[in-house]
Design goal:
Organism: Kordiimonas pumila
Shape: globular
Keywords: Signal
CATH class of the domain at 66-176: Mainly Beta
Helix content: 10-25%
CATH topology of the domain at 66-176: Jelly Rolls
Structural class: mainly beta
Number of strands: 10
Strand content: 25-35%
Protein name: Cupin domain-containing protein
Largest sheet: 6 strands, antiparallel
CATH architecture of the domain at 66-176: Sandwich
InterPro entries: Cupin_2, RmlC-like_jellyroll, RmlC_Cupin_sf
CATH superfamily of the domain at 66-176: Jelly Rolls
Radius of gyration: 27 Å
Domain Cupin type-2: 96-171
């Protein structure tokens, strides 16, 4: 009598973690493929086409610096440059303030639900040059070249140039929160 050999189980050496990872990868690929068939194709393009390769954009501060009176109801006239980068950086936005002595961005608050129409932003101030002060949540905070300040949602804040004869230059990054579309395009 010839004994039949049991077939070898080829999965014995495969860990449960490896199996779950492989299953997850397959599920992700199938989900993406299914989703691509449900989404409408852009005008004049077939479904499942590969998007064009992203490229860089460049913008210069000197192009588009504009005077603004009373930034967020602040004092004086300052200059600002909003970097649009072909409207691609959403949810991040970038701008430069150039505030002469005595000028300010007024104290303001951003809320997630935008109840005061100031936008739903976390803001990051980097001091390029000059010195001044920020009012943050009722505290006066001295600022100078090289400082980086984060003001999250629901924290009152504003910046002022307190130097007698030097402009305060600020690079501002503000991150849009809680919206599914770009309101600053």
């Amino acid at each position: 009598m010839v004994k039949k050999q049991k077939p070898k189980n080829t999965y014995i050496n495969t860990s449960r973690r490896s199996m779950l990872a492989a299953t997850g990868a397959c599920f992700a690929m199938m989900s993406q493929q299914a989703l691509s068939t449900m989404l409408p194709a852009p005008m004049g393009k077939a479904l499942n086409t590969i998007a064009p390769k992203a490229t860089f954009t460049k913008d210069a501060e000197v192009d588009g610096m504009v005077e603004i009176t009373g930034i967020h109801q602040g004092k004086g006239v300052g200059k600002a440059k909003f970097f649009r980068f072909a409207n691609t950086p959403w949810p991040a936005h970038f701008m430069i303030y150039d505030l002469p002595p005595g000028a300010s961005e007024g104290v303001h608050i951003h809320f997630l639900d935008d109840r005061n129409k100031e936008g739903a932003f976390d803001e990051y101030y980097y001091i390029i040059s000059g010195q001044g002060q920020m009012e943050i949540d009722g505290q006066i905070v001295p600022i100078k070249k090289g400082d980086h300040i984060h003001t999250p949602l629901e924290v009152a804040h504003g910046v002022e140039n307190t130097h007698p004869d030097e402009n305060l230059r600020v690079f501002l990054t503000f991150i849009e929160r809680g919206k599914a579309h770009n309101t600053y395009s």
